[in-house]
Write a structure and sequence with these properties.
about 650 residues, alpha+beta, 3-stranded antiparallel sheet, 16 helices, globular, binds adenosine-5'-triphosphate, Kinesin_motor_dom_sf, nucleotide-binding, microtubule, Kinesin_motor_dom
Length: about 650
């Protein structure tokens, strides 16, 4: 028998630290930085509205440009590692714009190791210390790790390159896990190093104008500490540490990204945008937190409003050229300070049974279940372990669930078998599809770069086939509309003359098509302004015009798509030949569309022709990061919206229909 107990702790606020990178280029060294530290917890940045003013921020810790890797480790990492050894979860993540020093902070260099090697070293040190402690002598410890990246909204294993998107699952207890994610047991820092260094080379990086080795993906390293008593009361604690190096938010006007880099950037910015929405929802106490809207937030669920002790390190750059990115990152960091998690101790008590062997086989390291397996299931497996006599320990450290199935009750076994067979069938199907799409590269490191290339080619192929199917859909829709309009025309044959002018037909179908599937009115939406608000702990002086920075979103009214029917009820289909651009009307429509772009919710943006969910999100994300659109062509600045798409948006929304307040 085993009991799973959650020893609840008090709610804990996420710790937010800011680290300022030193000026890198010699040319920039004489220039005044746009941001500077005030003391160990606060800093100030220029106020872009008023150059005579600055905006002040307070954080849990501020590390200035002279800070050492050791300082970050002491304040942000060390305290959390001790918690992991007590069966609690901890997350440390580096956030910030591209080139601001996230990877330097997380990984560092051989001379200046960052958080990751230091955290692993901490855990080994703590284990050794606790082993020496007389009271802890009865505990067995083991440490294992998994490593993954989220690249273009797909989860890839970095330890075992399979070139396939790993599914994210959630168990009944709402624990997120990734089946089949590789896990390696490590017994020393050297062993970790030997496995981790080649794995980190699998991470997707590329040169952009702002960083010669820019991370194109979010990476997550999961360390799992299992602590188990070999004598009564046979307790077992599992603590997990997530070390996350996020990809940097990017302004593609500055990165000079094109093609695949631009697409990567779109995925990065979108997932960071969802991260912002999650933080907003948590701050506002909303019932629905959009964790599922991106893989990143889904995997960070535990760190954001979940059960982990969390620390966010926001990396910023001092150069004036990075001002806007720094300012945006500080705002995000500031609002993240209000996130509260509820860490608990993940502890299982294993009650000894008659079959329990007098002495367990202990080869030093304990075998564990896959890192990503849900804890409740672990509890069940643990209970069954009691009945196993001297079950051999796996050197691999990764145990498949079916290995335990023979020790389950018949009912549970059937269920386990069923789940397993379902899982393996799905897995086989997925493998099959992936193999067809992406023939597997040979194993071994020499082929890992092929794998990455294949993955990129696969992405491009998928994108092309998506665009093709969209075009096909549009085409068939167009034909359907054309057929409908012809049928309608025939229905009305006695009342109306059908124009034989091809331009009339074209316009008519365009009109009908533009209103196809659109509801007459859209539900009212509340557009939340980009708040800077009190969270920033602005300087109290009344002279500081920091509140000028509050961007007020104009009230959003009901918006509806208006077809080209004129007010007298005369169909413009009939007047199509008169549908020459009317400059006044065009100007009005342009203004309305710009207003919608600057204030509309995702739902409202979707009322625009050629704008679906994803494009609407990209538009909104850009607006929140870079401010308002002044012309519709500004849409070309949005990452992930190619010029052709923007032209289509303009064509489809401006020429034959207007957007009116209803
Ligand atoms: N604290 C620091 N001290 C010295 N050099 C630094 C520091 N932080 C960053 N750098 C240097 O700045 C450059 C960019 O840093 P890094 O690659 O860590 O940025 P990043 O935020 O991870 O960027 P991206 O999001 O594009 O991956 C690197 O050359 C790195 O060595």
């Amino acid at each position: 028998m085993s009991d799973s107990t959650s020893v609840s702790g008090t709610p804990t606020r996420m710790k937010v630290a800011v680290r300022l990178r030193p000026v890198l280029k010699q040319d920039d060294k004489d220039k005044e930085p746009c941001v500077r530290g005030l003391d160990a917890t606060s800093l100030e940045i220029w106020n872009w509205r008023d150059t005579k003013q600055t905006i002040k921020y307070n954080f849990d810790v501020f590390f200035d440009a002279t800070s050492r890797q050791q300082d970050i480790h002491e304040k942000c990492v060390k305290p959390l590692m001790a918690k992991a050894l007590r069966g609690q979860n901890a997350s440390i993540f580096a956030y910030g714009p591209t080139g601001a020093g996230k990877t330097h902070t997380m990984l560092g260099t051989v001379e200046r190791p960052g958080i990751i090697p230091r955290a692993v070293n901490d855990i080994f040190r703590l284990i050794n210390k606790q082993k020496l402690n007389a009271g802890d002598a009865q505990w067995m410890y083991s440490l294992s790790f998994s490593y993954l990246e989220i690249y273009q909204e797909k989860v890839y294993d970095l330890l075992e390159v399979k070139g396939q998107d790993l599914p994210i699952r959630e168990d009944r207890d709402r624990t997120i896990f990734i089946p089949n994610l590789a896990e390696r047991v490590i017994t020393s820092l050297e062993e970790f190093h030997d496995l981790f260094v080649p794995a980190s080379k699998n991470r997707t990086t590329a040169a952009t104008k702002l960083n010669s080795r820019s991370s194109r993906s979010h990476s997550i390293l999961l360390l799992k500490v299992v602590k188990k008593q070999e004598a009564p009361p046979y307790k077992k604690q599992i603590g997990k540490v997530y070390l996350i190096d996020l990809a940097g938010s990017e302004n593609n006007k500055r990165t000079g990204n094109r093609g695949i880099r631009l697409k990567e950037s779109g995925a990065i910015n979108t997932s960071l945008f969802v991260l912002g929405q999650v933080v907003d929802a948590l701050n506002q106490g909303l019932g629905r937190v959009p964790y599922r809207d991106s893989k990143l937030t889904r995997l960070l669920q535990d760190s954001l409003g979940g059960s982990a002790h969390a620390c966010m390190i926001t990396n910023i750059a001092p150069e004036e050229s990075n001002y806007m990115e720094t300012y945006t990152a500080l705002n995000f960091a500031s609002k993240s300070r209000h996130i509260v998690n509820k860490p608990f101790t993940n502890e299982i008590t294993e009650r000894p049974t008659a079959q329990r062997p007098a002495k367990r086989s202990s080869s030093g390291e304990e075998r564990h279940q896959a890192a990503s397996s849900p804890p409740r299931k672990k509890a069940k497996r643990d209970s069954n372990e009691q009945k196993v006599t001297n079950r051999p320990e796996s050197a691999e450290g990764s145990t498949k669930q079916q290995e335990n199935a023979p020790f389950l009750s018949p009912l549970l076994r059937r269920q386990a078998n069923f789940e397993e067979s379902m899982k393996s069938r799905l897995q086989a199907l997925e493998n099959n599809i992936m193999t067809r799409l992406n023939p597997p590269a040979n194993q071994g490191q020499a082929h890992q770069s092929h794998d990455l290339q294949n993955r990129q080619i696969l992405e491009q192929l998928k994108e092309s086939s998506k665009q093709l199917s969209q075009l096909q859909k549009q085409n068939s829709k167009f034909h359907q509309v054309l057929a409908n309009s012809r049928m309608k025309d025939q229905d009305h044959l006695p009342q109306r003359k059908i124009s034989s002018d091809p331009s009339t037909k074209k316009t008519s179908s365009g009109v009908a098509g533009s209103s196809l599937g659109q509801p007459a009115t859209l539900p009212k939406a509340v557009v939340k302004p980009l708040t800077m608000s009190t969270q920033h702990n602005f300087a109290p002086q009344p002279t500081t015009k920091s509140n000028l920075l509050k961007r007020r979103a104009p009230d959003v009214q009901f918006m509806k798509i208006k077809t080209c029917d004129d007010p007298k009820g005369k169909s413009l289909k009939e007047n199509a030949h008169q549908l020459q651009p009317n400059p006044e009307l065009q100007a009005k429509h342009t203004a309305e569309i710009i207003h919608l772009l600057n204030t509309g919710s995702v739902k409202q943006l979707k009322s625009l022709q050629s704008v679906g969910e994803k494009r609407a999100q990209l538009i909104r994300s850009w607006r929140q990061m870079f401010g308002e659109f002044t012309t519709i062509s500004d849409l070309k600045k949005v990452n992930g919206l190619p010029s052709k798409t923007v032209d289509a948006i303009i064509r489809n929304n401006l020429l034959c229909q207007g957007i009116a307040k209803g």
